[in-house]
Structures are given as C-alpha cells and as structure tokens.
C-alpha cells in the first residue's frame, strides 16, 4: 500500500516528537507527498518554529529526516490526474486537490489525513492517524 501524506500530518510531525513522527520514521511504510504542496510547509514554517520551539537548524534536520522516509511525487506525475482530482475536491477544499491527484497517480494508494474535508469524497480511501497506528501495530505484531 502506498500512503499519500497530507500536509497537516507533516506539520504535526514537525511540531512535536509524536506518534505521527514515529510512524513516518519507523513504520517501514511507503510514504509519498505531492511536490507542489511543499510550499504549504514553507508557508507555515514560522508557526512550526513558534509552536515547536525548534531552532531553524533543528527544523531543517527534522524536515530532512522526515523526507528521508517520504518520497516526493513530481508535479508532472500529477498532471494526468489533476482534472479528475479537481472534480472530486475543488468544491470541498481546492488545497486538497494535489493529494487526491497524487493518490490517483499511484496504484493502491490511500491518503493519510485527519482533515475532515477528505471525508466529503468517496473516491480515495482516507486513513486517520488512529488507523495508521493500528496498521503499524499490526505490522509490528506480524514481524514478531
């Protein structure tokens, strides 16, 4: 299964050393993020620094660490699915279009998000963080 990570999941992992960060780093899942949405992380950088208490240097270290486990999906791969994704999400939240396009561009993909906007569509499966924790535990138990 390919998991498209929503920007709010990334923000959560940057702000706090949390279950979200641990899932990304330790779960062994295949995580992906639409490259065009990187600007949203940059847009919230000051807020992340304020909420987390991180220095600029620590922010960069954690960001790079997270994206060591998250592959970027180039804009070119999203383009052939953009119109379909727009039809699904534009009326709900146009900022979520890249995540739906990313999921449509990959085989067997889901979106990891706690954003309620995604619940207003039924084309792509959405996993909440709680469900991701369950998947991680299930996978860990299978390895034991």
Largest sheet: 5 strands, parallel
The portion of residues assigned to helices is 55-70%
CATH superfamily: 5'-nuclease
What's the assembly state of these chains? single chain
- Count every beta strand, where a strand is a DSSP E run of 2 or more residues: 5
Q: Please compute the radius of gyration using only Cα atoms.
A: 15 Å
Architecture in CATH?
A: 3-Layer(aba) Sandwich
What separation lies between the terminal Cα atoms? 21 Å
DSSP strand (E) fraction?
5-15%
Low-confidence stretches: none
CATH topology: Rossmann fold
What is the number of domains?
Answer: 1
Mean pLDDT: 91
Summed up, the helix count is 8
Query: Tell me, what's the shape?
Result: globular
Model description:
There is one protein chain. Helix content is 58%, strand content 13%. It is α/β, with parallel strands linked by helices and 144 residues long. It has a five-stranded parallel β-sheet. The protein is globular and about 40 Å long. It has helices at 7-15, 19-26, 38-43, 45-52, 56-68, 75-89, 97-105, 129-143, and strands spanning 2-5, 30-34, 70-73, 109-112, 126-127. The chain is built from eight helices and five strands.
């Amino acid at each position: 299964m390919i998991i498209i990570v929503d920007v709010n999941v990334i923000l959560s992992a940057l702000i706090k050393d949390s279950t979200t960060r641990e899932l990304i780093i330790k779960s062994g899942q295949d995580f992906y993020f639409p490259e065009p949405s990187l600007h949203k992380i940059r847009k919230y950088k000051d807020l992340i620094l304020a909420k987390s208490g991180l220095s600029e240097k620590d922010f960069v270290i954690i960001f790079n660490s997270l994206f060591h486990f998250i592959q970027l999906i180039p804009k070119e791969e999203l383009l052939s699915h953009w119109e379909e994704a727009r039809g699904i999400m534009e009326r709900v939240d146009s900022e979520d279009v890249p995540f739906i396009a990313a999921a449509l561009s990959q085989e067997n993909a889901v979106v990891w998000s706690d954003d309620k906007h995604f619940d207003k569509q039924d084309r792509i499966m959405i996993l909440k963080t709680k469900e991701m924790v369950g998947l991680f535990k299930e996978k860990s138990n299978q390895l034991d």
